[in-house]
Amino acid sequence: MPKVVSRSAVSSSTDAQPTASSAASLRVYYCICGEFILVIDKNLAALPRRKTDNAIIIRAQETDTAKARTFKLNVTINDPILLQRQNGHEKQYRFLCTRCSLPVGYQCSPLPIKSAPFVYIFPGALTQIQGQVPTDAFDMETTLL
Asked: Record's family (predicted)?
């Protein structure tokens, strides 16, 4: 059998400017059970929050003034629930982790996912480090009720 010899060189520089591809990198988020849930083009901490329940807002549909985020969800959708809000009621189609069925987010219109203008992620539901509980996981325990 012939002997395989390979050579490679890796070059890096701390002085190098970030490239367009490194700035546009995707971020992966996991449920606290370790299951992959979300891949998105922006850090969740940098996205706006909803005033009613502090949920992270992900724009799912493009408008004339705003561009939609690029993201993919790996979730199951539960039956809708009806919540009482200050200005009436709100119907939520909740997203559940495919492994542990923990609620991780919702949208306000029926299937398919991304059919509503916005998708909302519960605060503390996702982490970037697989198997690590986010620091804000228990800050708003009553959010899901």
From this structure: Belongs to the STEEP1 family.
Distance CA 121, CA 47 (A): 11
Name the token pair of 28: 């992966």
Q: Are strands 88-97 and 75-77 parallel, antiparallel or unpaired?
A: antiparallel
Q: Is 47 inside any structural domain?
A: yes
Is 51 inside any structural domain?
A: yes
Given a contact cutoff of 8 angstroms between Cβ atoms, the answer to whether 95 and 77 are in contact is: yes
pLDDT digits (tens, 9 = 90+) for 28-82: 999 999 999 999 999 999 999 999 999 999 999 999 999 999 999 999 998 999 9
116-134 average pLDDT score: 91
Could you give the number of structural domains in the chain?
Answer: 1
Whether 136 is covered by a domain: the verdict is no
Q: What is the pTM of this model?
A: 0.78
Separation between Cα atoms, residue 89 and residue 17, nearest integer Å: 49
H or E stretch including 82? strand 81-85
Residue 81 belongs to some domain of the structure: yes
Identity of the amino acid at 47? L
| Domain enclosing residue 45, as ranges | 23-127
Q: Pull the structure tokens for residue 144.
A: 């899901």
